[in-house]
Write a structure and sequence with these properties.
The chain is of the alpha/beta class and about 350 residues long. It is built from 12 helices and 13 strands. It is about 30% helix and about 15% strand. Strand 8 (about 185-190), helix 8 (about 205-210) and strand 9 (about 215-220) form a beta-alpha-beta unit. Helix 1 (about 35-45) packs parallel to helix 4, helix 6 runs parallel beside helix 7 and helix 9 (about 225-235) runs parallel beside helix 10 (about 260-275).
Length: about 350
């Protein structure tokens, strides 16, 4: 197994042993308002997340305005049923002129701003803003020319792997490396919106790490924070989660997005999970020293005189430690005390 090396994104180390790198995805949750988008960035800054991510496209750079069956979302889709792709992306896109103020606001807060570009012109825009990394969306993993264009910038790549076969992931990683990318993170992902936890298959995380020798994280579309916390316990070093101000405000992705307090809980609890994972070990830890002293042992529980027999009434297994092992009770019962012993004395061989 190759070691999963750490990489650096915007000054943050991302990899095994590091605090999980939490990427707050705004997506279309700005609901068409720059003020709301800036407010989302402000809320992310107070959560403990390290990065805010946008999506950089226009409706006509990601699809075309067509209404054939292939361009329509199935009618019974829970969030976007009956709409065509152009309409959805027209509503959800982040206007390109918003990128500069959003990047600036994020940097004021010490956040790492980056984005998913969906065509080469989007890469050009993000390069003009000195984006510190690029995200490859799951559906774009098969667009190898686009991946090579991102990789040619020399920036780290974060690659989502939803829907992808192992061969397709290998093609994407090979394309990125061949074009100059030396630092990349793979994200396990279930590309359904929302996603069912039973489809998360989190054992994919160590499998990807072993297969490609790179840091691996999770792009998560389930409700809540349970799946990301479990992912960190399995070695995920980055978590991407959609964020909104209030789900009740609606929006294309609000249904499966976290509110700011929930994002803060995710940041806190994934770090708890990271710190809880460690090598198997047995025996007392230093932190258990006080409790170790409370282990049960044999104690004299009634005042006795020399020559008196040891009985179950004057010697018992109680807390704390300090007396003979509890399993010696059958050996000591019936023996005689060698001297007077006060109640509350640990039983030792010298007393009988």
């Amino acid at each position: 197994m190759r070691a999963a090396e750490s990489i650096t994104i915007g000054g943050h180390r991302v990899g095994p042993g590091e605090r999980p790198f939490v990427i707050a995805e705004m997506s279309g949750n700005h609901n068409g308002s720059l003020d709301r988008a800036l407010e989302i960035v402000d809320a992310i800054a107070g959560s403990g997340a390290q990065a805010v991510k946008l999506q950089t496209y226009r409706a006509d750079t990601i699809t075309i305005d067509a209404d054939g069956p292939a361009f329509r979302i199935r009618d019974d889709h829970g969030l976007w049923g009956g709409r065509n792709l152009y309409q959805l992306y027209e509503q959800a896109h982040t206007p390109w002129e918003w990128h500069e103020p959003l990047f600036a606001r994020a940097r004021e807060h010490g956040l790492v701003p980056f984005s998913s570009p969906f065509d080469p012109t989007a890469v050009e825009l993000l390069e003009s803003l000195d984006a510190p990394a690029y995200k490859v969306a799951s559906a774009e993993l098969v667009d190898l020319p686009l991946i090579r264009r991102m990789a040619a910038t020399g920036r780290p790549l974060v690659i989502s792997t939803g829907m992808a076969t192992l061969a397709e992931i290998d093609d994407a990683v090979t394309a990125a490396r061949s074009a100059g990318c030396s630092e990349l993170v793979l994200l396990a992902c279930t590309a359904s919106y929302p996603a069912d936890p039973s489809d998360a298959n989190l054992q994919t995380i160590p499998a990807l790490r072993e297969a490609f020798g790179v840091p691996v994280g999770l792009s998560d579309h389930t409700y809540g924070i349970g799946v990301p916390v479990a992912a960190v316990a399995l070695g995920a070093c980055a978590i991407e989660k959609h964020v909104t101000l209030r789900r009740d405000d609606g929006g294309v992705d609000s249904d499966f997005s976290l509110e700011p307090a929930e994002l803060a809980a995710l940041c806190r609890e994934t770090d708890v999970a990271r710190r809880a994972v460690g090598p198997a070990r047995f025996g007392p830890r230093e932190s258990e020293r006080d409790t170790l002293a409370l282990r049960r042992s044999l104690w004299v529980v009634a005042d006795v005189t020399a020559g008196e027999k040891v009985t179950s009434e004057n010697v018992r297994s109680i807390r704390p430690a300090g007396g003979l092992h509890t399993d010696t009770i059958s050996t000591v019962l019936g023996r005689q005390f060698t001297r007077d012993v006060a109640r509350g004395t640990p039983l030792g061989w010298d007393l009988i």
